[in-house]
Amino acid sequence: MLHPDSSITRANDGGEPNSSAGKPILNQLRKFELTNVLVVVVRYFGGKKLGIPGLIRSYKNATKDSLQRSIIINKKIMEQYDIEFNQEEMSFVMSFIKNNNIEIYRNLYISKNKLTINVQKNKSIEMLRLFKEKKIKILYKKIV
Questions:
Q1: pTM of whole model > 0.85?
Q2: How many whole angstroms separate alpha carbon 131 and alpha carbon 93?
Q3: pLDDT per residue over 11-31, tens digit each?
Q4: Where are the beta strands (DSSP E) in 27-93?
Q5: Do 55 and 110 share a structural domain?
C-alpha cells in the first residue's frame, strides 16, 4: 500500500504462480487497514510442492503472523498548506485554526500575512471550501 487512501497499490508474485503470493499479502494489508507499508515474504523451497492453494495459505499466514506480532504505529495523514491572507481576514483565519485544532507550522508575517499550517486530511476539504469563499490564497500544498 503506497498511498493513504489505498489508491496506489503494488503486489508481485516474484516467480510464484499468478496471484498466489502478492495478492494474499496485499489482502492481509487491507484487512489490517494499513497504508504506507511494504511487506516482503521470503520463502525457501523445502522440497515439498505446496500447490497454489498451499502457496496462497503460506503467504497469507506469513503476512498475518508478522502483522499480528508487529508494533503498528498510527499516524494521522496531514496536509500542509501555505496560505496568504489580508489583515481583514486575520480573525477569521485564526479562529478557524483554533476551532479545528490546526497546527501552525510556520508564521511568515513580513509584508503579507502568511502561514504554513498542518491540517488533518479529513478537515482539509471544509477548510478549502471556506478559504475559497473568503478568497484566502492557498500557495502550496503537500502531504506530510
A1: no
A2: 8
A3: 899 999 999 999 999 999 999
A4: 78-85
A5: no
